[in-house]
Design a protein that fits this description.
By secondary structure, the protein is an alpha+beta fold. The chain has helices at 45-63, 71-77, 89-104, 114-119, 132-138, 152-155, 174-186, 281-294, 296-305, 308-311; strands at 11-16, 22-31, 34-41, 85-87, 147-150, 157-160, 193-198, 201-206, 214-220, 223-233, 236-242, 247-250, 253-256, 259-260, 265-266, 271-278, 314-319, 323-327, 335-336, 344-348. Strand 7 (193-198) and strand 8 form a beta hairpin. Bound molecules: adenosine-5'-diphosphate (ADP) and magnesium ion. Residues 109-111, 113, 117, 169, 171-172, 175, 200, 241, 245-246, 257-259, 261, 285, 288-289, 293 line the site of adenosine-5'-diphosphate (ADP).
Length: 350
C-alpha cells in the first residue's frame, strides 16, 4: 500500500507487558510516501519509537522529490547550472552510496532515472507510455552520476548534477538508508529489540521479548494476499522489489515502476520479485532493485563475485517461470509456502 490519499494519521499504541509496565511501543505514520510502522521492545521503547518517527520525518524533508525545499529538489532544480548546492551530510552519504550501487551493479541501479520515471508518469497522477524517440532523448540524462563533495564536518557537503534536465530519484535506496539511520537512533535508547517496517523494507534488531528469532514473510508476487516463504532474520534489513508493487495498464499491457536503465522501459528480466537481505539496509534496498533489473543469472553472479556490498547480501529471486532461488545464507529456518501455488525452490551456494 503506497500512502497517498489514505487518511491514517498518527496512531500510537503502547502495549503493556505482563508485569504491567510499558515494555513495547508501536507507532505508525506516513513518511517518504509510504506507511511506516515502528515497534520497539524495552524500557525506553516509547521514546525510542517516537525518536525514530522524528528521524524519518527529517529524512523525508531532505529527500522528498515533491517538497520544493528538500535537498533532492534543490539539487535537481540546480542541474546544469554549474553551481553546487549545500546539502545535509546525510544527503551526501545517500548520494555517495547510490553512486557506489550504480557502479557495482554495472548500471542496473541508477539514481538519476527521474526524468524517465516522469516520462512514464510514475511521479504524477497520470500514467502514459512514452514513445521510443522520447526515451532515446532522455537516456543521455541518466549517464552521469551526481557529483558529491564533503569537506569534513566544518566544510559541509555539496552536490551537483552536471547536465541540465538531470534529476535524482532516490526511491530505490532512501528507505534502506533511512532504516540504517533509524538503527543509529535506537542505539541511543535502552531497547532490547525492534522491528521497523518502512514501507515494506523490514529491519529487525535485537531480540523479540520471548527470545525467539524474528520471522519475516515474503509475499507471493502473483497474489500479494498470500505468502511465498518465511525467512528467519537476525539483525538486518529485508527489502523486496517487485513488478507488482506499482504499475499501470495500457492497451492490455502492464507497465511497472522498476525501469531498466539500458532502455528506459520497465525491466523485463524474467523475475517477478527480488528480496534482498543484508546487515546493511542501504544495500538491501538498492540491490533488491538492481537484482530485479539484472535478472536471475546476473543477480546470482553478482551475489557470488561482487565486491564488499554483494558479500553482505542474501537473495530470494522469484522467477516468472515459478522457480525460486534462495541463497545459502537464508537456508536456515527457511520455510517455503509456495508448493501449492505452483512454485518450486532451490538453495543456491556461493
Ligand atoms: P519500492 O517501490 O518498494 O521502493 P524499489 O526499492 O525497488 O521499490 O524502488 C523502486 C523505485 O526506484 C521506483 O519507484 C523509482 O523511483 C526508482 N527506480 C526505478 N528504476 C530504478 C533503477 N533502475 N535504479 C534505481 N532506481 C530506480
Ligand atoms: Mg530498492
Amino acid at each position: 500500500m503506497k500512502g497517498r490519499g489514505v487518511a491514517l494519521g498518527l496512531l500510537c499504541v503502547v502495549l503493556t507487558g505482563c508485569a504491567g509496565t510499558a515494555e513495547s511501543a508501536q507507532v505508525q505514520f506516513f513518511a517518504m510516501d509510504t506507511l511506516m510502522s515502528v515497534t520497539v521492545y524495552g524500557r525506553q521503547g516509547g521514546q525510542a519509537a517516537r525518536a525514530v518517527q522524528a528521524e524519518m520525518n527529517r529524512l523525508d524533508a531532505l529527500w522528498s522529490r515533491t517538497r520544493e525545499d528538500s535537498d533532492i529538489s534543490r539539487l535537481n532544480a540546480g542541474a546544469g547550472s554549474g553551481t553546487a548546492v549545500e546539502v545535509d551530510a546525510d544527503t551526501g552519504v545517500l548520494l555517495e552510496r547510490a553512486n557506489t550501487a550504480a557502479r557495482e551493479s554495472g548500471g542496473a541501479f541508477n539514481p538519476v532515472m527521474a526524468p524517465v520515471m516522469d516520462a512514464w508518469g510514475f511521479t504524477g497522477e497520470e500514467h502514459r507510455v512514452p514513445g521510443g524517440e522520447e526515451l532515446e532523448a532522455l537516456l543521455p540524462l541518466t549517464l552521469t552520476l551526481p557529483w558529491v563533495a564533503s569537506d569534513g564536518e566544518e566544510g559541509g557537503t555539496r552536490a551537483a548534477l552536471t547536465q541540465a534536465g538531470q534529476a535524482v530519484d532516490a526511491g530505490a535506496i532512501a528507505k534502506g538508508r533511512a532504516a540504517d539511520l533509524a538503527r543509529e537512533v535506537l542505539a541511543d535508547y535502552t531497547v532490547t529489540g525492534a522491528i521497523l517496517d518502512l514501507g515494506g523494507n523490514i529491519t529487525v534488531l535485537g531480540e523479540k521479548p520471548d527470545g525467539a528469532p524474528f520471522r519475516v514473510a515474503v509475499k507471493d508476487p502473483g497474489n500479494t494476499e498470500e505468502l511465498l516463504c518465511v525467512l528467519t532474520l537476525e539483525e538486518g534489513t529485508c527489502s523486496t522489489s517487485g513488478g507488482y508493487e506499482r504499475y499501470f495498464e495500457a492497451d492490455g499491457v502492464r507497465y511497472h515502476h522498476i525501469l531498466d536503465p539500458a532502455d528506459g522501459c520497465p525491466a523485463e528480466s524474467g523475475l517477478r520479485s527480488v528480496t534482498a537481505v543484508s546487515t546493511d539496509g542501504t544495500w538491501a534496498d538498492a540491490y533488491s532493485t538492481a537484482c530485479f533489473v539484472m535478472g536471475a543469472e546476473k543477480a546470482l553472479d553478482f551475489w557470488r563475485t561482487g565486491t564488499e556490498a554483494a558479500q553482505t547480501l542474501e537473495l530470494v529471486l522469484v522467477g516468472e517461470d515459478g522457480r525460486v532461488y534462495v541463497t545459502e545464507g537464508l537456508a536456515e529456518g527457511f520455510e517455503f509456502r509456495g508448493e501449492e501455488k505452483g512454485y518450486t525452490y532451490e538453495i543456491v551456494y556461493r
